[in-house]
Amino acid sequence: CSLQPDRFGATSASDAWRAGGVVFARADRRFLAVRKSLKEGYDFAGLWALPGGMVRGQSDDESFLSTSRKALSDRFVAETGVQPGPMAPAKILGPVTTAYWVRGIRRYTVMTVFISEPDGAQEPRTNDRSVSEAAWVEILPDLSTVAPGNRLILAHLLWSELDETQRAEVWPLVSAAHAECV
Asked: How far apart are CA 161 and CA 131, in angstroms?
């Protein structure tokens, strides 16, 4: 990945492939989630997601990982109002690709997942027009209300904590998310 002239991170010079990321911020049996604003033509309008977004940066002077971490930390604060604490790339999960439509064009985002453990006493509040609300969500949420790429990430990160009944319940939603993301 590298920064393009428009300051967005991308996997190629093509406008269709962008770099982004999310932050899985957990405190005990809860994690921070944001509900995407209702915006006409936006595939994920009204769905829950992990805080994050596209990677944007100023220059190629820093490593792309460093640029990603800073960009996502800034997005995290804007979307949730919570200070994230140290952020580290998830070691057990590689990038996840999500697909969506923007003005009739198929786009893809390769999302890097960062892990953070913020102070769970912080009350979420959004200051970002792309988000209608931010909240601490109990593990395990209703995955049918979560954006597909984020559904895959949550399932992967939480799978070992689920019992067999929960795994059986979420598997069809995870499978459907996988089909939507390619």
From this structure: 28
